[in-house]
Every structure is written in C-alpha cells, then in structure tokens.
C-alpha cells in the first residue's frame, strides 16, 4: 500500500468543490432520505474525494455546474447518458416540440414506431425494438425473452460485470436472497475456457450469455474485448442454442452506432440499450432478431411510463444527429487525445497511474492504491482545477467536448499528478 506524506496529501483542497449550498442540502437530505443519498452517487459511502459536490444545478455542452456555482469540464456525462453534450439544441428542440403536442397518453405516439424503425435501420442485428425506462428494464427483459425462447433457466454473466440493480444482478447483497441469484452463473470475461466450464456445469439449462462490449466494471483496469473471445461467445451460444445478449447499456453508441461488436463481425441475438440513447432523457430499448420476435411478443413487458413520447422524440433526434455528425468518430479522436495526454502525464511525473479502456470511455487507477488514496488526491486536485474526473469509475467523452476542453481537463490532471508526486 502507498504511504502518503500527510501534509502534502492534505494541502490542495481549498476553494472549488462542495460549498455551503451543497453541504446544506446534504444536511437536509440526511433528515428525509435514508443516508442522505443512495447508490453509487453517495459521495461519502463511495469514498470520493472530500471536495466532490453531491448536488448540481445546471449543465451545458461539456460543462457541469454544482449548486454552489462552480463550473467543471465534465468527463462523466451524467454517468453515460449525455452523448452529444448537455442541453444539446437539436435534442432540446425535439423535446420542446413533442412536449407541446403530448408526452403521455392512453397509448404510445407515432414516435414509438418511428424510433423502432430508426433502431432497426441503425443497429445491424435488429429486426425489432421494444422500449422501457432504465437499463435494468432492458437487461431484465432480455433475460426473460431468452428464457421464454429457450425454456431454460440459467443466465451466464462475467464476474463483476454490472447488468443492473435488480436482485439477480445487484453487486450489493443486502436484501437479496440466494433464490434471487439461483439462475445466475459466472464466468471470467475474455476467458473462453471459463465460459465453457460454466456451460458444461449447466448443460441443457443455459438460456443466455449476457456480456458487455468490453470489460468496463470493477475497481481494476478496463479490458478491451479479445476478438477471439467475442467470436467464441457467439459460437458457444450457437452450439448450445442459447441467446447471446450484448449489454450495450453503458457502451452503446460510444463505440459504433451499428452495435459495439459490429466491427468484429459479431452480432448478438438481443441488445440492451439505455444511457446514451436519448442524450439524457429516460428511455431504454431492447433490440432483437426475427428468431426472438415471437418470444418477445409472448412475455409481459410494461411500465406506467415506458411509452412516454418525449424521450422517444429525444432518442430519434439523438441517434439522427449522432449519425449525421459522426459523433463516434469525433469522440474517439478526442478520447485518443485524452488518453495520450494522461499517459504522458504519468510518464513525465513518474506517478504510478494506469490508464485503460476505450478512448471514449477511459479509466484511471493507481498501482498499489487499494484504498484509492492517490486516485482521490489526483481527482480532488483536478476538481479544484476545474475538471470532474472520477477516481474509480470509467469516464465518458461526449461529442460536445473540444480539443480545448480536453486540454483543460489535461491541465487539471497535470495539477493532480504534481500533488500525487509530492505526496508520494
Ligand atoms: C452495463 C450496464 N448494464 C445495465 C445497467 C443498469 O442501467 P440502469 O442504471 O439504467 O438501470 C448499467 C448501469 O450503469 C450498466 O452500466
């Protein structure tokens, strides 16, 4: 474990970050919300730098503003949903137009059909689409459809891969029973032998393999998918008659609008999309192949707000604009600039920072730093210098970033690196 020079480690957190309004809201929240905040956004429970704000007021382009009025170049994009930039004019215009006509009614609007048509035209494997609200709705529906189609029970997932907050998938076991998890079987990402072992242990009962486009979970480094693994997962599913579910909730539309494994020539049977689909408006989608159409039609898919027209209008505007402007190409170029800059900061300062992941979804980690003290020092200092960089989750690039905003984030990262070096 890393030993810090305590004086140097405590020096930097001075002016920007959680201020009086943020602190007052936290105190009020603690009285009326259990713990004051829940889930991964609880800045105290998840051990974020002490100056990280909990509450935000507004956001535009690639900038977020906390409740105390501090502005940051943002590299979280609301944890993924913001693809084209906060308050994107084209998306907001589509939202205003739809809201003026109607959002929720006795049934869906024409936007539902238009959006399904657009997804079928955009996502290569898709012959149909159905909609929900959250990513968990979509991954849950994928599993249910796969079980309905195969008449089998087991869903195979990679260890520590996150697929939702429901009992089968949540990483926190409080309130979860063994029965809730009885049909989930784990294997190691990028390890075909472990997938084969999981299949062999449940022969004849594997309904689906659910997998993310690359390994983007846990507190270690991210791992790009091994093309042989992706091809192997496809081959295993074909051999045993199981459904291949690609969980695109986090990576969808940041690697390839056609589907994240399209450049590998691998197509899933079902995909779960959410976050980036509507540039921040609440919607998720399952896309699937003709072979699963009947099974999808047979399962009970519903939610009171699932057919809201406004998020559907936002999704149509988002996908159309992303395709028109080659948002993925632009984000990739900017992400490469960020990755190169971060790696050169690590080399020139000699700090033990490892940068991993896809250019549009990078992550940092410090060697020998299991309690994330260096990561927190680095990100806390970067925040002080005007950039929101996360110490343990992957970051997200949006198409609203510019070379200038990436360079500003890199300057803030360089300040963080100097403080880490001084503290080592
Ligand atoms: C890969 C993946 N799947 C599923 C989910 C669940 O999505 P939601 O939080 O919208 O329910 C997430 C959320 O981060 C995710 O990253």
Structure description:
This protein is globular. It folds into two domains: 6-74 and 327-423, Aspartate Aminotransferase, domain 1 (Alpha-Beta Complex); 89-324, Type I PLP-dependent aspartate aminotransferase-like (Major domain) (Aspartate Aminotransferase, domain 2). The protein has helices spanning 6-10, 20-32, 89-101, 110-122, 135-150, 178-181, 192-201, 227-240, 293-298, 309-324, 327-349, 373-384, 403-423; strands at 56-60, 63-66, 71-74, 128-132, 154-158, 184-187, 206-211, 243-247, 270-273, 284-288, 353-358, 361-366, 387-388. It has a seven-stranded mixed β-sheet, sandwiched between helices. It has a four-stranded mixed β-sheet with strand order 1-2-3-13. It has a two-stranded antiparallel sheet with strand order 11-12. It is built from 13 helices and 13 strands. The mean pLDDT is 95. The protein binds pyridoxal-5'-phosphate. Pyridoxal-5'-phosphate binds next to helix 5.
């Amino acid at each position: 474990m890393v030993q810090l020079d305590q004086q140097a480690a405590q020096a930097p957190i001075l002016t920007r970050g959680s201020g009086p309004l943020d602190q007052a809201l936290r105190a009020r929240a603690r009285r009326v919300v259990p713990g004051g905040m829940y889930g991964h956004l609880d800045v105290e429970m998840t051990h974020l730098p002490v100056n990280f704000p909990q509450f935000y007021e507004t956001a535009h382009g690639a900038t977020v503003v906390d409740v105390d009025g501090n502005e940051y170049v943002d590299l979280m994009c609301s944890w993924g949903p913001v693809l084209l930039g906060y308050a994107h004019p084209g998306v907001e215009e589509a939202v205003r137009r739809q809201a003026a006509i109607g959002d929720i009614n006795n049934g869906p609007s024409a936007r539902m059909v238009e959006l399904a048509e657009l997804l079928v035209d955009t996502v290569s494997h898709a012959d149909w689409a159905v909609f929900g609200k959250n990513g968990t709705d979509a991954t849950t529906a994928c599993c249910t459809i796969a079980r309905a189609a195969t008449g089998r029970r087991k869903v195979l997932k990679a260890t520590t891969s996150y697929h939702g907050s429901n009992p089968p998938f949540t990483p926190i076991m409080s309130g979860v029973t063994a029965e809730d998890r009885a049909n989930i079987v784990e294997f190691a990402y990028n390890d075909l032998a472990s997938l084969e072992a999981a299949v062999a242990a449940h022969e004849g009962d594997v309904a689906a393999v659910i997998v993310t486009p690359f390994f983007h979970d846990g507190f270690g480094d991210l791992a790009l998918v091994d093309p042989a693994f992706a091809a192997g997962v496809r081959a295993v599913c074909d051999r045993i008659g199981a459904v291949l579910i690609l969980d695109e909730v986090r990576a969808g539309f940041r690697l390839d609008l056609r589907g994240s494994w399209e450049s590998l020539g691998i197509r899933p049977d079902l995909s779960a999309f959410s976050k980036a689909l509507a540039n921040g408006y609440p919607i998720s989608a399952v896309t699937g192949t003709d072979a699963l159409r009947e099974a999808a039609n047979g399962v009970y898919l519903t939610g009171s707000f699932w057919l809201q027209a406004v998020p559907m209008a936002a999704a149509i505007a988002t996908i159309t604009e992303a395709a028109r402007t080659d948002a993925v190409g632009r984000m990739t170029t900017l992400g490469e600039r960020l990755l190169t800059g971060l790696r050169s900061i690590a080399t020139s300062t000699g700090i033990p920072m490892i940068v991993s992941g896809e250019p549009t979804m990078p992550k940092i980690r410090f060697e020998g730093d299991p309690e994330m003290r260096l990561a927190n020092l680095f990100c806390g200092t970067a925040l002080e210098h005007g950039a929101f960089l996360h110490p343990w989750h992957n970051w997200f690039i949006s198409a609203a970033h510019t070379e200038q905003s990436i360079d500003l984030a890199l300057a803030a990262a360089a300040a963080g690196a100097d403080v880490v070096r001084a503290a080592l």
